[in-house]
Design goal:
Two copies of one chain form a homodimer. Chain A is α/β, with parallel strands linked by helices and 338 residues long. Chain A contains twelve helices and 19 strands. Chain A folds into two domains: 196 residues, Quinone Oxidoreductase, Chain A, domain 1, CATH 3.90.180.10; 136 residues, 3-Layer(aba) Sandwich (Rossmann fold), CATH 3.40.50.
C-alpha cells in the first residue's frame, strides 16, 4: 500500500511500503476513507521538532474496518469508524475519569496519511457510526478525530459556561473548532483573535461575535476594552507559543480559566504571575475519545459542521503539496482522499 | 496605641504610634481582640522580601467594632467581627463571582498586629458574629481570617470532591487547615506530607489518613505507591517554593487538580511539563471573604476547630518573640493577645 513518509524538514514523500498487519489480538486494520494534515505535523515539517529517521506520518483518520484481531468484540468488518490519535483501552482508571489521552495502556496512532492503518486497542479507540455516513458528512467526521475534539477540549478545560465571555487565541483549525465548541456550549460572547480575513469569516460562521486583530499587549488591551476592563471568563489557547500563552494570561479575568491545547514550544510561566493573575490553567493532549460519541452525533444531527475547516482537498498522493499549502498558510487545513 | 513595626530582617519592634482614624466614610475602626503572625510575614522577617522602610505589620485579626464611617450601613459599634486581609466592597463584578481577593476596589488590610486597626470597605470586608463569641472560639475565629480561609481555598481550587484522594504539600498552619478543609469536603483519603512529629499529629487530628515524610522525587514515588501508581485527584500546594510545586505536579494524576496558595518564590513552570502532566493549576491570594460566613458558622457550630494551629499564645507586646518562635519552627503559629 501507499502512504506519506517524512524524511526531514520540507521533505514528505508519498511511497509504497508494507501493509499494516494485526500485531496484537486487540488491533484492527482500518482502510482510510479520509485523512488530513495537522498543525502539529508542521512542527516536524518546519524542522522545529527533529526527524531522527524517515517514518510514516499522520494521526487523523476515518475509515472502514478491514480486519479485526481475535479479541476485538465491539467492531465488525465493514463498519465506518472514527478514532482518536491516542489509542486507549477506555476501561482503565484514567479512561474512566475521562482522560483517555493518559490511558494506562495508551499507544500513539501514527502513519495515518496512508491507505491502511493499524489501530491498537480497537474496542476502546474506535467509535462506529450507526450506518455508513453520506459523503457530505465525511469531512466533519474526520475533523472529530482531532481538531474538533481538541477545540472542544479547550472549551471544556476552560470551563466555558452558558452566557459567559470567551476569547479564542489562534485562528488555525483548532482555534476555529474552539469557537464552534464555545458556541455549542452557549457562550454569550465569543471573541476570536485573528488577522486573516478568510479565517475571520469562518470564525464568524462558527459563532464568533467579535474579532480582535491586535496581538500581544495591544491584543490584551483590546480584550480588556471589550470586557469592561476585567478580561474574559474563559480563554482558549490554541497556538502553543510563549507569546500566545502570555496573551491568554493577560486576557483572562481573575477567577477565570484558560484551556490550552496548542502543543507548547518554549512556553514558561512564572509562579508569581499565575498566582497574581488568579486564573486556572488546564491543558494537554485532548482526551478526544471522551467526546467522540457526542461529536459524531452532533455532526450526523447537523448541530456542528467542523468539516468547514478543510478549505483544500487533495488526493492522498499529493500529500507533499498539502504540507506546503499549510506551511505557507495557503490552506487552513488540507483533507486527503486515498 | 501600640503595635508591631518591622524595621528589617529579624527586627520587629513593639512601639507606640498614632491611633488609626476613619479616612473614608466606608472605613471602620476595630479594636483587636486577637491577632497573629503569618508564615508570609516571615518572608520579610527572614529578609527574603525587602523592607524598604519601617512599617506596621500583620494582616490577621478578630475584634470589636469601635467606630464606623458615615457610609457604613451593616455594622454597628460593639459588634464582634472577623475580616479578611484584603478589603473588598463585595459588590463589584469580581466580588460577585467570588474573587473578593481581586475586588476592583480592593485595599490591603495591614498593621494588624496592633491594638486598633482601620478596615477599609468595612461593609464588604467584615463579617459580624451573631453574638459575642465565648472565649474558647476566639482562636478558631481568628484562624478564619487567613489560614483557614486560605487552606479552604486550596481545597476549592483543587476541586476536592467527596471520596477523592488528596495530597497536602506543606505542614505549616495553612497546610494543616487545608487538611481540615479536605476532610470537611469529604475526601476519602488525605495524605499529609510532613516530617515533623507535632505537625503530623495535628494533621491526623484534622483528618489526615496517611503521612508521607519523603520529599522531592522520593515523595512523589511514595504518593504514587499510595495511589495505585497514578497520583492523587487533588494536590494542595501550601508552601510556595519551586521544589514544592514540582512535588505537587508529580503527585497529581492526569486530569487532576492542583490548588496552590503558598505565595510563590522562584516558582517556574514549563508549558511542556504542564501539558504532558494534564493537570489543572489554580492558585492565588485566597478570596477568604467568600468563605467567611460558612467558616464562622463552622466554628460556632463546632464542625471545625482550626484554632488548634495556634500552639503558642503570647501577649501582643511580646510579638518579637513570636516571630522568633515561628522563624525557628518552635511554633506552628503564634496567637497574640492585645
Amino acid at each position: 500500500m501507499r502512504g506519506a513518509v517524512i524524511y526531514g524538514p520540507k521533505d514528505v514523500r508519498f511511497e509504497e511500503y508494507a501493509d499494516p498487519k494485526i500485531l496484537a489480538p486487540t488491533d484492527a486494520i482500518v482502510r482510510t476513507v479520509a485523512t488530513c494534515i495537522c498543525g502539529s505535523d508542521l512542527w516536524r515539517f518546519r524542522g522545529v521538532s527533529p526527524v531522527v529517521q524517515p517514518r510514516p506520518i499522520g494521526h487523523e483518520y476515518v475509515g472502514v474496518v478491514e480486519e479485526v484481531g481475535s479479541q476485538v468484540t465491539s467492531l465488525t468488518t465493514g463498519q465506518f469508524v472514527v478514532g482518536s490519535f491516542v489509542a486507549s483501552d477506555n476501561t482503565c482508571e484514567l479512561c474512566l475519569v475521562g482522560y483517555q489521552s493518559a490511558c494506562l495502556h495508551r499507544e500513539p496512532v501514527d502513519g495515518c496519511q496512508a491507505e491502511f492503518i493499524r489501530v491498537p486497542l480497537a474496542d476502546g479507540t474506535l467509535v462506529a457510526t450507526p450506518k455508513q455516513p453520506a459523503p457530505e458528512y465525511i469531512p466533519s467526521l474526520l475533523a472529530c478525530s482531532d481538531v474538533m475534539g481538541t477545540g472542544w477540549y479547550a472549551a471544556i478545560a476552560a470551563q466555558v459556561r452558558p452566557d459567559s465571555t470567551v476569547v479564542v487565541v489562534g485562528d488555525g483549525a483548532v482555534g476555529l473548532c474552539a469557537v464552534l465548541a464555545a458556541r455549542q456550549l452557549r457562550a454569550d460572547r465569543i471573541i476570536a483573535m485573528s488577522r486573516n480575513t478568510a479565517r475571520q469569516e469562518l470564525a464568524t460562521q462558527f459563532g464568533a461575535t467579535d474579532i480582535v486583530t491586535e496581538r500581544g499587549q495591544e491584543g490584551i488591551a483590546a480584550i480588556k476594552e471589550l470586557t469592561g476592563g476585567i478580561g474574559a471568563d474563559s480563554v482558549l489557547e490554541c497556538v502553543g507559543t510563549h507569546e500566545s500563552m502570555q496573551q491568554s494570561l493577560g486576557a483572562t479575568r481573575p477567577g477565570g480559566n484558560i484551556g490550552f491545547v496548542g502543543v507548547p514550544h518554549g512556553v514558561h510561566i512564572r509562579g508569581e504571575e499565575l498566582f497574581s493573575a488568579q486564573v486556572a490553567l488546564r491543558g494537554g493532549s485532548a482526551p478526544v475519545r471522551r467526546f467522540l460519541p457526542d461529536l459524531i452525533d452532533g455532526v450526523l444531527q447537523q448541530r456542528i459542521n467542523p468539516g468547514k475547516v478543510f478549505d483544500v482537498t487533495l488526493p492522498l498522493e499529493e500529500v507533499a503539496e498539502g504540507y506546503r499549502a499549510m506551511d505557507e498558510r495557503r490552506a487552513i487545513k488540507v483533507l486527503l482522499r486515498p
